[in-house]
Design goal:
The protein is an alpha/beta fold. It contains 14 helices and 13 strands. The chain has a 5-stranded parallel β-sheet. Helix 1 packs across helix 5, helix 6 runs parallel beside helix 8 and helix 9 packs across helix 12.
Length: 363
């Protein structure tokens, strides 16, 4: 599918569902007393789990935008969870103010970075002659640890980061040569929706990271769908961005030996149907057409007959009779179709137009 020799580092199968448990244990193994952390979710679960194993009391501060499934998981590991603020920055500021606790940073900490670096060590121990390791980037802890470890063990290997277009702080920071803070937009890659990368992680990334790539929401959804279908792996949006970037940059990586780091699998299953639908639309396996019809018996049947001739499968039909500019006696109809690529949808649209109907494909 990509023309590359692709390997997967499946941290979605790690305890707590992500790589974060590595750094949490490395930071907390010698601590006493109480700890506090701010997190969108995966770091929360890691700190909660590590605290439970080590017999430490833990408190987690999560923004109100964090997925409920991750909040409940952190509680399940024994942490006290506070929901506060609309962004990670607000949750972080509150956690830093709690002086009775030892703060466990999600990424900008040398012990955390070193713990995440064990991912890179394991990759190089198991594989040789790796051309690229592609790593999701939020605050930069994972890619910093991997890059520092890999460059000590395999000089040939290049480390490339991947961010969502909705949260591109690392991308712009490396381009500008200084840390750029940006308010994240809504994204299915919530695990890497960080507005500002860390100073420590930035310093490591400047030295060791080859490039940062950006991917859009449709590409991420398509990658999640491919992991489900092709590898039977449940991968969250943040964990799927490396595959999304590989698909989007096939020519650059063709013929190369690539490792994709699947950073996590803690997907919000209340959104999975929408994510799958978006992925199917991105991969041109589902299409939507909009047709204006006379609102009378038998008219819609003419449209469905055309679709049947082209062997399209109708999944859903929706009528909108209340559109302001629509004359009385007409209706706008949206049909969701199972199709076989973009060309297939275009054939259906052309045929419907040839029969005198007003029709267009919807993205």
């Amino acid at each position: 599918m990509t023309g590359a020799d692709v390997y997967l580092k499946a941290e979605n199968l790690q305890k707590t569902g992500s790589f974060k448990v590595r750094g949490a244990f490395n930071k907390m193994i010698g601590l006493k007393g109480k700890v506090i952390a701010a997190s969108m979710g995966n770091h929360a679960q890691a700190v909660s789990f590590a605290a439970g194993v080590l017999g430490i009391q833990s408190k987690i501060v999560m923004p109100l935008t964090a997925p409920m499934v991750k909040e409940e998981a952190a509680k399940g590991y024994g942490a006290s969870v506070i929901s506060l603020g609309e962004s990670f920055r607000e949750a972080l500021d509150y956690a830093l103010d709690q002086k009775d606790f030892t703060f466990i940073h999600a990424f900008d900490d040398e012990d955390i970075i070193a713990g995440q670096g064990t991912v890179g060590m394991e990759i190089v121990e198991e594989l040789s002659d790796i051309d690229y390791i592609m790593v999701p980037v939020g605050g930069g802890g994972l890619i910093s640890g991997i890059a520092a470890a890999v460059k000590e063990l395999s000089l040939k290997t290049k480390v490339v980061g991947v961010q969502s277009e909705a949260a591109p702080s690392a991308f712009h920071s490396l381009k500008e040569g200084r840390i750029i803070e940006m308010t994240p937009e809504a994204t299915i890659a919530d695990g890497i929706a960080i507005g500002k990368i860390g100073q420590k992680t930035f310093d490591v990334m400047k030295k060791y990271v080859e490039d940062i790539l950006l991917v859009n929401e449709g590409s991420i959804a398509m990658a999640i769908l491919n992991f489900l279908e092709r590898k039977k792996l449940v991968v969250e949006g943040a964990g799927a961005v490396a595959l999304a970037a590989l698909f989007a940059n096939r020519e650059r990586f063709a013929g190369r030996k690539i490792v994709l780091v699947i950073s996590g699998g803690n997907i919000d299953f209340t959104l999975i149907d929408r994510i799958i639908l978006k992925g199917l639309m991105k991969s041109k396996r589902i299409g939507i057409i909009e047709v204006i019809l006379k609102d009378m018996p038998g008219t819609l049947n003419k449209i469905t007959e055309i679709i049947a001739v082209h062997r399209g499968n109708i999944l859903n039909v929706y009528h909108d009779r209340l559109m302001g500019a629509l004359p009385i006696g007409e209706t706008r109809v949206f049909l969701t179709l199972e199709i076989r690529g973009e060309g297939h949808l275009e054939e259906i649209v052309v045929d419907i137009k040839s029969q005198g109907f007003s029709v267009k494909a919807r993205g």
